[in-house]
Amino acid sequence: MRKPFIAGNWKMNTDRRGAVGLATGLAQELRDIETVDIAVCPPFVYLDAVAGALNSSNIALGAQDVYFEPNGAFTGEISCAMLKDVGCTYAIVGHSERRHKIGETDELINKKISAAISSGLLPILCVGELLEQRQADKTEAVVTTQIKAGLAGLHSDKVLAVTVAYEPVWAIGTGVTATAEQAQEVHAMIRGLLADMYDQSVAGQIRIQYGGSAKPANTAELMACGDVDGLLVGGASLKVDDFAAMIKTVA
Ligand code: 13P
Known about the structure:
This protein is α/β, with parallel strands linked by helices and 251 residues long. It is built from twelve helices and eight strands. Helix 1 runs parallel beside helix 2 (47-54), helix 7 (139-150) packs across helix 9 (180-197) and helix 11 (216-223) packs parallel to helix 12. It is globular and about 45 Å long. Bound molecules: 1,3-dihydroxyacetonephosphate.
């Protein structure tokens, strides 16, 4: 069975002191949890400090992005090896804020996914439709394109390193959560697509997280869906009490 996986995406929030405090509080609060995989994804500049605070805890470290080139003249970018060097296990790739606010393409995202896996990082591939795409009945087409393009060229032994995060853009940071039915419908579609692209066994092993205004009050309902294997949490992951409550609900 798929072990639940709850990750916190801190986005462009916290400062050094707040990041270390949040990590320290979570490590303390969640020290007895064994049945849920847990990760936090702080801003790049605080990864090292947070790694120190999480030291020997059951909380893994993730980055919010990664670049695909190994080194060289790529001003401002961060390589897979650098992330591993500071203790990252995971890297979020293709978050909707990077797709829609920064302009990342499926092609770039695919290169990042490939490079992350080759280096031993576990990528979290984010997909999801805009409100107007949902209203135009294009959710399945959009998500299918994002998954096929994001995973292009990856064989089944590699793709098992990936977690997919379905994050409907209209639910991110808006307080509007997808209903459990809406989430389950898209998650089941994604799993079917993975079965078509690979096989049932691969599709049955890949974890699919939901993200978009996930909070303590809707965690149980979302996680009760058969194809929702975890959550990628934004705002609620910035408070020890809220994020810990969500993980304890799942555990
Ligand atoms: P919110 O939980 O703040 O809606 O953000 C979700 C998200 O984008 C996580 O990556």
